[in-house]
Automatic annotation (TrEMBL):
PANTHER family: U6 SNRNA PHOSPHODIESTERASE 1 (PTHR13522). Keywords: Hydrolase, Lyase, Nuclease, Nucleus. GO terms for biological process: U6 snRNA 3'-end processing. Belongs to the 2H phosphoesterase superfamily. USB1 family. GO terms for cellular component: nucleus. It comes from Ophiocordyceps sinensis. It is found in: Nucleus. Phosphodiesterase responsible for the U6 snRNA 3' end processing. Acts as an exoribonuclease (RNase) responsible for trimming the poly(U) tract of the last nucleotides in the pre-U6 snRNA molecule, leading to the formation of mature U6 snRNA. InterPro entries: Usb1 (IPR027521). This is U6 snRNA phosphodiesterase. Its EC number is 3.1.4.-. Residues 1-12 have a biased composition (Polar residues).
Amino acid sequence: MALVDYSSSTAESDADETRRRPAKRRKAGPGSGAAASSTSCSSVASAVAMPPLPATFHDLYASTVRQSVSDDPGLHQGRKRQTPHVPGNWPTHLYVEWHPSEAQHDALDELLGLAEVELGDDIKLRNFVTSDLGAHLPLHISLSRPLSLRTANKDDFLDKVTKSIRSSGTGAFVVRPGGLAWYRSPDSDRMFLVLHVVAGAGTGSTNPQLMRLLTRCNTVSTSFNQPALYQKTHNEAVGTAFHVSIAWTFEQPDEEASLRVLGLFKRRQFKELQTWKINVSSVKAKIGNVVSDIALAERAQAATLSSSLLFGR
């Protein structure tokens, strides 16, 4: 794990000493006053502005500290694993990660606040957008069901899924929110409020890039005797199943309340949600507490691969 560079204790002592010293009063001069103060503040703000963190930084702290060696619903808001944890096995998940911007986070927070009002006091809606400490949380689009790998298989699994995704010829792409829905996962006893995602205009089909990645992930998962994600049913195509979970509840909302919540997406104040772009440039493989980032091919590389296959080069 990469180390974070902290200042030395000597630097802290110097800083403390500086804070204890009374500031000297300066005589007002030609450059003093509100304008000079504003300029000074702007200069200080620019000087202390920090560069943005790299995307891989989030992978270092993707999990909280484990508080128990056995499943304890009391530590997880009453949630229970459908597949109990087995010591020596590694819980595994493949997914696309999305970090909403500040404005997007605020819009989702407002949306969930109105959803709580529509559901009433009998339904406890817990969100995935903000942590208990108020921190913004990343959201995700699943490309696998919850998997459980043996220690002897986890490295081989990561190697195979990495090679499979990188050889798919899928370049970075964009999806956008297409509407709200309620979803009950086969791996959980919870009801989820989700944002369906759809491919950008001009693709000609429903989520073709996500379908390509899902096929690769499912092929590798089933080769390790793990379940596949999303099976086609008589009334729903697999391509329409991709979503971002934004909240969950143990309770079953009644039909009227459920429909009122789904209708929030079409309100004028949330019209901009339909224009959001969720950039997909990699797939995350989380095995235990370790997250690996599998970058998708550059568009040029994907085009070269397609050309090679077409002309037999």
